[in-house]
Amino acid sequence: MNDQSIASFLDALASKASTPGGGGAAALMGAQAAALVSMVCNLTLGKPKYAEVEQEMLVLLSAAEALRSQLTDMMQADVEVFNAVMAAYGLPKATDDEKAARSAAIQTALQAATDVPLACAKACAEVLKLSRVAAEKGNLNVISDAGVAVMAAYAALKSAALNVYINANSITERSFAEQRLAALAEVLAGVELEAEDIYQLVKQKL
Amino acid sequence: MNDQSIASFLDALASKASTPGGGGAAALMGAQAAALVSMVCNLTLGKPKYAEVEQEMLVLLSAAEALRSQLTDMMQADVEVFNAVMAAYGLPKATDDEKAARSAAIQTALQAATDVPLACAKACAEVLKLSRVAAEKGNLNVISDAGVAVMAAYAALKSAALNVYINANSITERSFAEQRLAALAEVLAGVELEAEDIYQLVKQKL
Hints:
The structure is a homodimer.
Chain A: H1 6-14, H2 22-42, H3 54-89, H4 96-137, H5 143-168, H6 174-188, H7 191-205
Helix pairs in contact in A: 2-3, 2-4, 2-5, 3-4, 4-5, 4-6, 4-7, 5-6, 5-7
């Protein structure tokens, strides 16, 4: 999927095909956010003016690149879990045994389809935190890129959340669903104010 | 640029190269938002249950596709105006005549570098409006995609705004800069509340 051109990804996103959809777009926005944090690091490292934060930028870059890798992988994972849900719905349901097996397969697939966007949301929350360090300590010449990173991470996080909600709603094992919704609520707590705060910090530095 | 793979775009974004940067990422997020509005249209059109909104979805799809095309073009335009600014800074400045010519070239390039993100912000504000129609009238099965569209358009708009601010700050012809900042303020007015309102509308429909 990452080998696909941007133009063909956007065409597929716009088409009536169910995948890629909002889940893939969320993961791509998260990956863009991580890439922009890395860009700020790469344009801060090695500059005498920023020698004091060299070590911190190396750590930040390493964290951002690990998250970027996770988030790009999630674009594909999102397609796979969606297809698994569709495949489960397509199982035969002529006999009671088949019906039971089909229901169980649907529930298993929905659980995976909830866990992927939850993992995406968590990764985006991490990128959001990293964007604060980039905004606070990165090269002033590229500080606007830290501001774009925070907005992209925020949008990706809120987007992934929608995909957790929609799948959790269809899960019959309520303890599983409630646990995942609670984990999501924890990830989302305070994120609006945090994103706005980092954005304003960047804006003031321009 | 749109022929580039997603993986190589993200690598270039993360790298120490100045382009692509936040401006390109903003345009790509805007294009993703427009593509997701189109997706909702394409999965609503032709469904008997949504026959009543068929005509409205056709108009919405056409508007979203026009904006997607504009926004993908802006990814390349952002690179070009940035390169023009850099080229102007690189002009000779040995004599007074050269200095004057260089300053004039820098200012001309900065004006173009302000107008591209302003146009991007305007296009994203349009996509944001379209995402409300998708959220209100689109196929309920893909309503979460309208929610991702609104977040992507919002993040793209706020990101493009940073690139207007940063370039406008360096423009010496203050009437030009003030006019562009006023136009941007108009585009941004009320956008936080509007985005949150559409997002909540989607969340309630899940």
